[in-house]
Design goal:
Helix content: 55-70%
Number of helices: 13
Shape: globular
Number of strands: 0
Number of domains: 1
Length: 359
């Protein structure tokens, strides 16, 4: 089955977001970095909210209608492709992280808090951020991949139960607004000012709600793509208001950030394919294609890099930071082409037998 054509602008945006997370993790180590730059990079963790929205968006336009129409028979093929997409690369990087932890343990430099071997089975099964632990361990950014797997599993029954194509545009917009308001209400009610707060406790909720909001965006895009002018104006207005609210401190992050990313996603989707689109060049598109590898490999690579090359982890010369970023890029390219793509092809080539083979 062939899905809809790729929206190249969204692929590029995913790459930019992945590098935002990378820079977030190194921001406090850059020697001589201006305070304004550090403060800006400190917001990089919010790129995860964009990932969750984008994932729900892509899942709906690629799988929503055909999952609903084909029923449960299509579920194995969907889950097969999702597991092929996320687990092999996760397992490979996790194995590398275990090797690093073993070397550190053998040399008397083990970090038992980060490399908690009792939690390793949860990581291997990709369920480590399903509310069963109270801290982030091993390859820390993979917490979001764990919650994505939960969202994929939930997507199947919810999509079979509710066909978003049957809902009117005003109802979809109202549901989207209610979803984002509900996300904010829960965070605010628990006293959390940032969507990135208390990830072991709130990360799963954050992912599932934003993933759900992304599916609503996908359903709206399928309605609006033929006549995008008015929706573009609406989304641009929402984006401007949300950014202004965050910049002024008048709007809570737990409401304004997801709203801003939702509006940005829709603007990019509705303008994708336009002549001269700034996010549709080959370089940015390629960075988006390898972004999953970038996201997963950069954290353990940063730990290894600091151990090998860095004397003071809070004053790393810009030249060494540049070297690290180059290694992340090279590692991303290698993992994408040598692990991620081949594993996807191999797993997706497997065929279900019996009645499920019709999916």
């Amino acid at each position: 089955m062939s899905g809809p054509a790729e929206l190249r602008a969204l692929t590029a945006a995913r790459g930019i977001a992945a590098w935002g997370v990378v820079l977030y993790h190194v921001r406090l180590s850059i020697a001589g970095a201006p305070a304004g730059l550090v403060a800006g990079l400190a917001q990089g963790y919010l790129a995860v909210d964009f990932f969750f929205l984008l994932s729900g968006f892509v899942m709906w336009i690629a799988w929503g209608p055909r999952l609903h129409d084909a029923g449960w028979a299509a579920a194995p093929a969907f889950l097969q492709r999702r597991i092929a997409r996320i687990w092999p690369l996760h397992a490979t990087v996790l194995a590398g992280t275990v090797l690093l932890a073993t070397v550190l343990a053998l040399t008397g430099r083990a970090d038992g808090e980060l490399f908690a071997f009792d939690q390793l089975p949860l990581h291997a099964a990709l369920v480590h951020n399903w509310g069963m632990t109270d801290r982030l361990t091993w390859n820390v950014p993979s917490w979001s991949i764990s919650t994505e797997l939960f969202a994929y599993l939930a997507f199947v029954p919810l999509t079979l139960a509710a066909d978003l194509r049957r809902l009117s545009t005003p109802v979809l917009v109202a549901l989207l607004a209610a979803t984002l308001l509900g996300l904010h209400a829960v965070f605010a009610g628990l006293g959390y000012a940032s969507p990135g707060a208390a990830i072991p406790q709130m990360g799963l909720f954050r992912c599932v709600v934003e993933f759900g909001a992304g599916t609503l965006l996908g359903a709206l895009w399928m309605r609006w793509r033929g006549s995008p002018r008015s929706p573009l104006l609406l989304c641009a207005a929402v984006l401007a208001a949300a950014v202004a609210g965050v910049a002024s401190g008048r709007a809570p992050q737990t409401l304004a950030v997801p709203a801003a990313f939702a509006a940005l996603l829709m603007v990019l989707a509705l303008t994708a394919g336009a002549r001269g689109h700034p996010l549709e060049g080959r370089l940015l598109h390629y960075l988006g294609e390898i972004s999953f590898a970038t996201y997963l490999c950069h954290y353990p690579l940063w730990i290894a890099f600091k151990l090998a090359f860095v004397a003071d982890p809070y004053a790393v010369p810009p030249a060494l930071i540049a070297l690290y970023l180059t290694l992340v890029l090279a590692g991303s390219v290698a993992l994408h082409h040598l692990v991620e793509r081949p594993a996807q092809r191999a797993i997706n080539a497997l065929r279900w037998r019996g009645p499920l083979a019709r999916a």
